[in-house]
Amino acid sequence: MQELHDAPLAPLTTFRLGGPATRLITATTDAEVIAAVREADGAGTPLLLIGGGSNLVIGDKGFEGTALRIATDGFRLGGTELELAAGEVWTDAVARTVEAGLAGVECLAGIPGSAGATPIQNVGAYGQEVSSTISEVIAYDRRTQETVTLSNAECAFSYRHSRFKADPERFVVLRVRFRLEDAQGLSGPVKYAETARALGVGPGDRVPLAAARETVLKLRAGKGMVLDPEDHDTWSAGSFFTNPILADEDFAAFRARVSERLGEGAEPPAYAAGEGHTKTSAAWLIDKAGFTKGYGTGPARISTKHTLALTNRGGATTEDLLALAREVVAGVREAFGVTLVNEPVTVGVSL
Which residues are catalytic? Predict the structure, then answer.
């Protein structure tokens, strides 16, 4: 278990932003993770968990406490059952499941970060969410000081949310178990319209697993959503805002604002999101509020490839990023009466 003091955290995040931690511990086994958590909790020391760093916005002053980098490894596949250690690189794990001929996460290719973070955020893209394949999550319960196994139902998954996100101080994910599908080398049913178009198939069709993964990687790369150290559009946390889910009454008021601003007959994106609720597109809202691709003049700007990504163009500070985020939130609220919510976790700062 490696321990550093006054350790830079920016290199551990995809934004490449944030100040140092008082102490940084890198744990490579579950036992080391648990020991570090117990030590911090026993001493009453603030604890920051870091996986792949792809969903973190750390303040310029850094973190006063113990930052624990979870660097465990473990990929165990038996039949269609997969168990991943929390520190496994997610993109590599997806590639290995595709190579093994198993469907269920192939459309989640290219998403940066670690396997242990996927249930926290209920990671999803291109018509798939991890909640549809996760069978169990093994975690350390900081309240009871025991290792527990939570079923899919006990994880309380919803759109970009889970029990872990709702109570971030309680559980430390150690391992994630998935139940995948053997579809004879084919993908799961293609659900996302953009993916189906790119593949030349209809919604619900299946395609070779490798084709699904490669197509998603190309789509993501075209939006700056595949990490590339030479491309500042990927110095981001991916989608910075979640897609708003509005109650029917609020959505009706929103539609009226759209007509008022964009003209009679203009319609916002609308997707069913459970009884009495509709989901709309954060990217559409940002664009129609006047924040187009590449918006900004400082070192933090909107991606030139996708309006939903805020980026560090090199030399930015966290405050530069937050100023841009606040400007976007205020502009969308003024234009459409909808308040965007940030997807990345903020540490020592807030919008």
Answer: 160, 239, 343
